[in-house]
Backbone:
C-alpha cells in the first residue's frame, strides 16, 4: 500500500547447511548478545534466531531448549576462565590469591569477556534455571577445582568466600557501578583484594 | 454464562480516604512483594495497585512514578539497616568489622528483611533506574556514613570493598545458592568474614 514492494521473503537462511560450524558460532554469538542485553527471562529462542539470521528450528537443532542454548553460551563465556584456571592453579600456592584476582579482573576489564559475564550474572540473579547453570558450571568446574588444590579441611567454603569477594567487587564496579570503586584504578583494587583472596584460600 | 453472577464490581476501594496511612502502608507492602517477586522491570504500578486492592491512581497519588514507588519501598526495606547503622558506628573501631558483618547477616537471615533485599538486588542488577536508587540510598546513606568514621585517606573505597565482601556472600548464599556456602552455619561464615571486613576498614 505504501509504494515499494515489501522485502520480507521469510527469514534469511544463508549458509545454513553449507557451513554448519559458522552457523553454530553465529547462533552462539547471537545468544550471548541477547542474554547479555535482556537477561534469561526476556530472551527467546526466536529472538536469538532473528539476531543470528537463521530459523528458530535451527537453534533448536543445534542446541535444544532455551536452557541448553544458555548453557552453551555460558560455557563459551567461561572458556577463557577455564583456560586460565590452570594458570591460577599452577605456580606457588602463596601467590594463588593474586593470580586468581588478576585473572578474574582481566576477564571483567576486557569488554569482550565482560559482556557474557554480565549476561550470566544478570540471568542467574533473576532466574532459577540460569542460577542452576551458574552453579553447575562455575561452582563445579571453576571453584571446586581450585578448592581441590588447597590442603585445608574447609577448602570449598574458603574458595567460595574468596570468590564472593571477587563477585561482590564485580557487582559494585561493573554491574551497579558505585563510586569510587567503579572508577578506581584496577591495580589499586587488586592490591587490596588479592591479600583477602589469599587469606581466604590459605590463611589460618 | 456459567451460572452465578460475576462478583467483579470494579476494583475494591475500602478505607481509601478513611485510613490513609494504612492504605499507604498496604501499597508499600504490595510494592515490596511485587518488586521482590518480579524485579523492577516486570513490576507495574497496576500490579502493585491490584495486590494492594486499590486503584492505580491511588498509587500515583501517594508515591508518583514507578521509580518513586520503588525508592519508597527500598527506603522502607533499608530502614532496619539505617537504624542499625548507628549501632555499627557506635562502639570500638576495632570491632566495627564484626558489628557490620553481624548486622548485614542479621538482615539477610531474617525472611522479613530478606525479601526486600532480594528485590533490591534483583532489580538493581537488571535495571539502571533501580541501580540508581541503590546507589543513592545504599552508597550515600549507608556506606558513606561508615566511611566518614574511618580515619584513613581512602575510606570510601575501603568501605565499598568491605561491602563488596558482604554483597558477594549474600549473592552466593541467598541469591544463587551455591553449596556449601548456602547451607553453612552463619557463625562459621561470620568468623571468616568479619576479620576481612575489619581489615578492609581499618587494616594497613
Residues:
Amino acid at each position: 500500500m505504501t509504494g515499494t514492494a515489501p522485502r520480507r521473503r521469510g527469514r534469511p537462511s544463508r549458509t545454513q547447511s553449507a557451513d554448519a560450524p559458522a552457523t553454530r558460532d553465529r547462533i552462539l554469538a547471537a545468544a550471548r548478545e541477547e542474554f547479555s542485553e535482556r537477561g534469561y527471562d526476556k530472551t527467546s529462542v526466536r529472538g536469538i534466531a532473528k539476531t543470528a539470521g537463521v530459523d528458530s528450528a535451527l537453534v533448536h537443532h543445534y542446541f535444544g531448549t532455551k536452557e541448553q542454548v544458555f548453557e552453551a553460551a555460558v560455557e563459551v563465556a567461561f572458556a577463557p576462565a577455564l583456560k586460565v584456571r590452570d594458570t591460577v592453579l599452577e605456580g606457588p600456592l602463596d601467590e594463588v590469591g593474586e593470580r586468581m584476582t588478576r585473572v578474574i579482573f582481566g576477564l571483567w576489564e576486557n569488554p569482550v569477556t565482560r559482556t557474557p559475564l554480565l549476561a550470566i550474572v544478570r540471568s542467574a540473579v533473576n532466574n532459577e534455571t540460569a542460577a542452576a547453570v551458574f552453579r553447575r558450571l562455575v561452582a563445579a568446574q571453576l571453584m571446586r577445582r581450585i578448592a581441590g588444590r588447597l590442603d585445608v579441611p574447609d577448602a570449598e567454603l574458603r574458595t567460595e568466600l574468596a570468590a564472593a569477594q571477587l563477585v561482590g567487587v564485580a557487582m559494585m564496579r561493573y554491574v551497579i557501578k558505585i563510586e569510587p570503586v567503579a572508577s578506581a584504578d584496577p591495580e589499586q583494587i587488586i592490591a587490596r583484594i588479592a591479600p583477602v583472596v589469599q587469606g581466604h584460600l590459605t590463611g589460618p
